[in-house]
Specification:
Layout (H helix, E strand, L loop, with lengths): L15 E4 L2 H11 L5 H9 L14 E4 L4 E3 L4 E5 L2 E4 L4 E7 L1 H7 L1 E2 L5 E3 L14 E6 L5 E3 L4 E9 L22
Antiparallel strand pairs: 1-5, 2-11, 3-10, 4-9, 6-8, 6-11, 7-9
Helix pairs in contact: 1-2
Length: 179
C-alpha cells in the first residue's frame, strides 16, 4: 500500500479544455459536412461539453459527437468537437476511439490514434478545434447520435532526444507539419 496519495496532476502542469468560438465551430462544421444547417450547428454548439472523466480511475476524458452523423459502409466523417486543449509543451493529448464505438460498432480512427500536439491549441487555421475522424468498418450504415461519447483523450508527457533541434511553427491542423 502506498503511503502517499497519487497526485492529481504533475506539479506545475497546466492542462485544460476550452470551447472554441462559435465562428470557428460553424466554419469547421460546414467544412466537415456541407449539408449541416445553421440551426443544427447552433444547437450543437450550445450543447458542446467540456470533456470529463467518468470515474476516478479513468485515464481518458470523454469527447462527444456534437450532432447526428450517418456513416455509410466504408464512409469517413470528420467531426469538429468544439473543444480545444491547452497543455504544456512537453505534453501531448492522445485520442482513442471509445471501446463501445470500436468494438461494439466497428468504427475506428483511420490513423489508429490521433495525436494532438501542444502547439495545435490556438493555431490560426482552426483555433485548435479537436477533430474526430471516424471510419465505418461495417457493411451497413451506422448512425452516431448527438451527445454520444465517441472518443477519449489521454494527456501524456513525452521526452525529447538530447540533440533535438526542432524549431518549426504550426500553421494548421491535419497534415500541417509535413513541412
Amino acid at each position: 500500500m502506498l503511503s502517499n496519495p497519487m497526485p492529481k496532476s504533475i506539479i506545475g502542469a497546466k492542462m485544460k479544455f476550452e470551447v472554441v468560438d462559435y465562428t470557428t465551430f460553424f466554419r469547421d462544421s460546414i467544412k466537415a459536412d456541407s449539408k449541416l444547417t445553421p440551426d443544427i450547428i447552433e444547437k450543437a454548439y450550445s450543447e458542446v461539453e467540456i470533456p470529463t472523466r467518468k470515474t476516478s480511475g479513468s485515464a481518458g476524458y470523454d469527447f462527444i459527437c456534437p450532432y447526428d452523423i450517418l456513416l455509410a459502409p466504408g464512409g469517413v466523417a470528420k467531426i469538429p468537437t468544439g473543444i480545444k486543449a491547452q497543455m504544456d509543451k512537453d505534453v501531448v493529448l492522445l485520442m482513442f476511439v471509445r471501446s463501445s464505438i470500436g468494438i461494439n460498432r466497428r468504427m475506428a480512427f483511420p490513423n489508429g490514434t490521433a495525436v494532438i500536439d501542444s502547439d495545435y491549441y490556438g493555431n490560426p487555421d482552426n483555433e485548435g478545434d479537436i477533430m474526430l475522424v471516424l471510419v465505418n468498418n461495417n457493411e451497413y450504415d451506422v448512425k452516431v447520435f448527438a451527445g454520444e461519447r465517441v472518443a477519449q483523450g489521454v494527456f501524456v508527457n513525452y521526452l525529447l532526444t538530447d540533440d533535438d533541434a526542432s524549431d518549426g511553427t504550426r500553421t494548421g491542423g491535419i497534415g500541417s507539419t509535413d513541412g
